[in-house]
Design brief:
70 residues, single chain, mainly alpha, 2 domains
Amino acid sequence: MSAMVLFFLTRHSAHHEKPKVQFWKLDPRIHAPQMPYGYLTTLLICLIPPIWYSIITPDLDKWEKQYAPV
C-alpha cells in the first residue's frame, strides 16, 4: 500500500541509475538504505523527532562504519 500512496518511492534510487527507464519497470535497489518500518510508518514517526532519532541513529552509525570513506 505504501508503494501506491507514495508513488513507488522505493524505486527512486533505481531511477537515478537508469533515468530513461519507466518507473514501473524499475526494481528497488536491494542494497540501498531502507526505512526501518516502511515509508508511511517512517513518515509518521518522523513527526516526533526524539523517537525518530532513537530509532535511526544506531542504523546510521552502523552504515557509516561500514560504507563511509575514512
